[in-house]
Amino acid sequence: MTTPVLDVRGLAFAYPDGHQALFGVDLHVHRGERVALLGPNGAGKTTLVLHLNGIHLAGAGSVAVSGLPVTKANIKEIRRRVGIVFQDPDDQLFMGTVREDVAFGPANLGLRGEALDAKVTEALAKVGMEEFADRPPHHLSFGQRRRVAVATVLAMDPEILVLDEPSSNLDPASRRELADILRGLDVTVLMVTHDLPYALELCERSVILDGGVVAAEGRTVDVLSNADLMRAHRLELPFGFDPVAAAATL
Amino acid sequence: MPAHLKVLALVGFMLVVVATPREWFAAYAFFLGVLVTVGAVGRVRPGWVLKRMVVETPFVVFAVLMPFIAHGPRIEVLGLSLSESGLLSAWGLLAKGTLGVIAGLMLAATTTPQELVHGLERLRLPQQLVQIMAFMVRYLEVVTDEMRRMAVARASRGFVARNPLHWPVLARSVGALFIRSFERGERVHLAMVSRGYTGRMPR
């Protein structure tokens, strides 16, 4: 088997105040896969995500991205390989214009001049936001800002795109547009979400994180249609949603 | 015109205006002419400028008071006894102040905040100051929006700030806003670090 893009083994982590969030997480994501990370609030999802690009370093166990271990020495390359899109686009977009914001990541990697411009244009084109390049981010709609936030990490040519609640606060049309964009990207995706229909629509495989460990994993349709498993981890489908019927329409 | 040249022009213009003796009335007419030309070239609407000139009001009040309270030889104007040197000082203050405000507004009208920040950067203003300004420009709207939402939420629960007894509530709101902004700052930093930020803006 090839080296997984994301290889998390026995990851445990406690915050400095002693609160332990992760108790031995094992997670593998292979190239081209789209995987949903599900779980109730407080399960440790965000803590896990912050390990993937070395904001937190493993207390025990290990994290590797395409074979490269996440350590202090590798941090620059790790942050290029792992692109995290945070939940609130206002946290992610902090420069004066969309163009500058998308350029921020690749410029930190040393790209300059025409190569940088080309990269920015390419990333914005992938999310359909080229014509907004010179607008200040706060003048865009929420859905547009979310798309630009995705472009800011795509511009770094990540090996894996990590999305924290990508569909939150989006109106249904923006939510669908984002789904279309994500489906069209040729990139590995790990998606943290409470939006279970969205997980079913976009991700073949799902992982349930609960109590700081991986409680279950499998095909998304199997996970969502296992009522006992769902109840045990405080996961609930929207009223009237039938995952098996929905999966049949995919 | 690049923003940094505009900033230099503004500073230069103001130095000349301030250094001009207040008795050279013709020079002031010329300065005003320069500003009007700039405004015409930059297609600045006079109404836009006038509305924003209210920031000058405190100076105007002070200037109007001066002829009444200053010492020295007095002259009769419309039956009022006014100090001659006071009148002259008032004229100087008013003329220089007004020219300054109009010149500043010309810059504001023809330059976006982003261009201004870049202009200052090109003028070699220290990186830290430029970064702080850029963040202020970016997040001013986010924070005022948050403030507005908090005010709406307060009002929706029947709160009206009518007398000083209500001030503690306002103080707590400001405190909450500060904490929220601080936490947002931390999240922004996290997002920056995730994209390879190491303490310097890439150039």
TrEMBL record, chain A:
GO terms for molecular function: ATP binding; ATP hydrolysis activity; ATPase-coupled transmembrane transporter activity. It is found in: Cell membrane. Keywords: ATP-binding, Cell membrane, Membrane, Nucleotide-binding, Translocase, Transport. InterPro entries: AAA+_ATPase, ABC_transporter-like_ATP-bd, ABC_transporter-like_CS, ABC_transpr_CbiO/EcfA_su, Co_trans_ATP-bd, ECF_ABC_transporter_ATP-bd, P-loop_NTPase. Residues 6-236 form the ABC transporter domain. It holds the Pfam family ABC_tran. It is a peripheral membrane protein. GO terms for cellular component: ATP-binding cassette (ABC) transporter complex. GO terms for biological process: cobalt ion transport. Its main location: membrane. Belongs to the ABC transporter superfamily. Probably part of an ABC transporter complex. Responsible for energy coupling to the transport system. Part of an ABC transporter complex. Responsible for energy coupling to the transport system. NCBIfam families: cbiO. This is ABC transporter ATP-binding protein. It comes from Nocardioides turkmenicus.
UniProtKB/TrEMBL annotation, chain B:
NCBIfam families: ECF_T_CbiQ (TIGR02454). Keywords: Cell membrane, Membrane, Transmembrane, Transmembrane helix. InterPro entries: ABC/ECF_trnsptr_transmembrane, ECF_CbiQ, ECF_transporter_component. GO terms for biological process: cobalt ion transport. The keyword Transmembrane helix applies. It is a multi-pass membrane protein. One of its GO terms (cellular component) is ATP-binding cassette (ABC) transporter complex. It is found in: Cell membrane. CDD domains: EcfT. It comes from the Bacteria. The lineage of its organism: Bacteria, Bacillati, Actinomycetota, Actinomycetes, Propionibacteriales. It holds the Pfam family CbiQ. The keyword Kinase does not apply. This is Cobalt ECF transporter T component CbiQ. The chain crosses the membrane at residues 24-41, 53-70, 90-109.
